[in-house]
Specification:
By secondary structure, the chain is an all-alpha fold. It has five helices and no strands.
Length: 171
């Protein structure tokens, strides 16, 4: 049995590692999502965010360095669950391109909400421990995640309106 975690710094390191794992998984996953998307705006959004996510990894590595620790990814079941949900939906439902685009915007929003919550928590811990340099790197990532969520929501609304028009037209 593992020793009980009792040091807040250990929790902070775990949270940073969780974020690092998530961002590294997204670096691999986002290009695949861009290929799946048939909506041009959605596809370019995934491509743009893939590039940003590479910088998120670098910022997390800098946050580790700022606190004098080696960057170590911790398995992140939360982000793996969102990815698994995507993979199962695509394989089990065989969605049409329009339906897949709608699903992808939902999956992207869930991912951004997850990341935003994780970054907010890590920033709170960093500031409480006086790790302002690390907090600065995390805040850069948080800002981009929030901007990405706004873009995803805009695309999702447009796609939903287009889908609703198709449903009304077929009735």
């Amino acid at each position: 049995m593992a020793e009980k975690m009792s040091d807040p710094r250990e929790l902070f390191l775990h949270e940073l590692g969780d974020l690092l794992y998530a961002e590294k998984l997204l670096v691999k996953t986002l290009p695949k999502l861009a290929q799946e998307a048939t909506d041009d705006e959605l596809r370019s959004g995934f491509e743009e965010h893939a590039e940003q996510t590479k910088q998120h990894v670098a910022n997390l590595e800098e946050a580790f360095k700022a606190i004098g620790e080696p960057a170590k990814a911790e398995k992140c079941p939360g982000i793996e669950g969102i990815k698994k949900e995507h993979d199962e939906f695509v394989s089990q439902e065989s969605p049409t391109p329009d339906i897949l685009n709608g699903f992808l915007t939902g999956a992207a929003a869930r991912t951004e909400h997850y990341e935003i919550a994780a970054y907010e928590g890590a920033i709170t811990m960093a500031k409480a421990m006086g790790e302002s340099e690390a907090a600065g790197f995390l805040e850069q990532n948080l800002k981009q995640e929030q901007e990405t969520l706004q873009k995803v929501n805009t695309i999702a609304k447009r796609l939903a309106q287009e889908a609703a028009k198709q449903v009304k037209a077929s009735v």
